[in-house]
Specification:
single chain, mainly alpha, 4-stranded mixed beta sheet, elongated, 4 strands
Length: 464
């Protein structure tokens, strides 16, 4: 389900794992499409390149203006530039498409017509909601399909996806089912709170969503992710790698048992390389894609997992959760201030009575989409800050375990950029607005020159 995930807010409890427990080392969220990944980590919408932890990820003076650590052959470079442009167009175009759809259905009064129908069918409000909301979710999924299909077509055309259309369609249907199951009660709760507290609904709903978000993050790796991908204990498939990872964990002073290390069979759907940390509390785990093990040498895999351990040690899931809670509170307050005004202003044209009207859902989603889009640079800046911290941690963690940590980290980023076709010099504005990770150029340059064990320098996270 797309249409900017039915607005940035109402989908928050499903898509929150995409931000709080997103794939951490791989390409930026707009360097992949919303197709082959599971819907719980599917905020990787086509067209999301990013920038601005420039201060945070700027290495040293001697590397501040060079991209020499990450280059591509001319033929691959041309494809990377073309693909980066396509992704940016699709990302911004997706927002414009969503806004246009919401404005169109409001102008045609479809939400009001649907409300009239459900009120004719039953006088019980909760039954009205059980009729209105699932139909709205299905409609929004259907009108989002053209962009979703095009995104998958782009990934297949550029060799990023190997998923068949049948498998892709199955994932879309699973995502729709998941949306119906999770969003319907969430929206019922929202409208119930609006009815009970017209002036404070934004605050009460925010308080109610916090435990829902935590629960969604907790259950995602256990119940949701396996709906879309196959996971198995890493110890069974690659015991030798587990031994190396345990050694890395010990070197970092961590206690991450093999039972919390998993292999994901990503090669059935994508060609990319990745690993990520997900879950919370008892469900927290590190996941490594099989593509990563197949295509990267052991030293680079150690850096990849060291990066993930950085997220684990630096409590980025919890920090991300706190950040999202704060942003969500502001977003809900802005929605409260905007939705009522819009309904009063266009009440006659849209035939929407008030905020508690079922038809007001379209106005809520329109506002959530617009405000969520404007919040994207702030969300992505925070994400890039966390990713840079994890880069530093990963490079320091492999010091003493590999011969050349700088070269190992740099080669890893070059491999990631080459596989995902990330252009070496993305547009700074696109990078600022869309990139959830520092650009590969920044990361590779930093890695190539970051050596805190030189005289007069000090590591950030490890004793010298």
């Amino acid at each position: 389900m797309s249409l900017r995930r039915m607005g940035w807010l109402v989908a928050i409890c499903i898509s929150m794992t995409a931000f709080v427990s997103r794939p951490a080392l791989a390409q930026n969220s707009a360097t992949s499409s919303d197709s082959s990944q599971n819907q719980s980590q599917a905020q990787q919408i086509p067209g999301s390149p990013g920038a601005a932890t420039v201060a945070a990820s700027q290495p040293t003076d001697k590397t501040s203006s060079t991209n020499s650590a990450y280059t591509l052959p001319p033929d691959i470079l041309a494809k990377a530039i073309a693909l980066t442009r396509l992704r940016a167009i699709l990302s911004f175009g997706g927002t414009a498409w969503s806004i246009a759809i919401f404005l169109l259905v409001l102008a045609l009064r479809w939400p009001a017509h649907l409300r009239n129908w459900v009120e004719h069918v039953t006088q019980r409000r909760w039954l009205q909601g059980l009729l209105f909301l699932p139909l709205a979710i299905v409609f929004l999924t259907v009108v989002s399909l053209p962009l979703d299909i095009y995104g998958q077509h782009i990934d297949r055309m550029y060799g990023l996806s190997v998923q068949s259309w049948g498998s892709w369609t199955g994932d879309q249907l699973k995502g729709l089912l998941l949306s119906l199951v999770m969003l319907t009660p969430l929206l019922l709760l929202l409208f119930w709170i609006i009815r009970k507290s017209p002036r404070r609904w934004w605050l009460w709903f925010w308080l109610c969503t916090l435990p829902v978000i935590v629960f969604a993050i907790f259950i995602s790796p256990i119940w949701i992710d396996p709906m879309f991908n196959h996971f198995s204990p890493l110890e069974k498939s690659d015991p030798q790698l587990v031994v190396q990872l345990e050694r890395l964990a010990q070197h970092a002073g961590l206690d991450i048992p093999p039972s919390r290390m998993f292999l994901m069979r990503a090669s059935e759907k994508v060609t990319g390389l990745n690993a990520y940390v997900t879950g919370i509390g008892a469900s927290e785990r590190i996941v490594v894609w099989d593509n990563t093990i197949q295509k990267l040498p052991p030293n680079e895999i150690l850096f990849v997992v060291g990066h993930e351990m950085g997220h684990y040690v630096l409590k980025h899931i919890y920090k991300g959760l706190a950040f999202v809670a704060l942003v969500l509170l502001v977003l809900l307050w802005l929605a409260y201030r905007s939705v009522g005004w819009l309904i009063r202003r266009y009440q006659a044209q849209w035939q929407i009575r008030d905020v508690e009207d079922w038809a007001a859902l379209a106005v809520l989603l329109l506002v959530f989409t617009c405000v969520g889009f404007l919040f994207s640079p702030m969300e992505n800046s925070f994400s890039r800050w966390e990713e840079h911290q994890a880069d530093v941690y990963g490079q320091e963690a492999i010091h003493g375990l590999v011969a050349d940590p700088q070269q190992t980290a740099q080669k890893t980023f070059v491999a990631l950029g080459s596989v995902y076709l990330e252009a070496p010099n993305p547009n700074p504005w696109i990078e600022f607005w869309l990139y959830s990770h520092p650009s590969v150029s920044h990361r590779a340059n930093f890695a190539a020159h970051y050596d805190p064990w030189l005289p007069g320098r000090h590591p950030r996270y490890f004793p010298k």
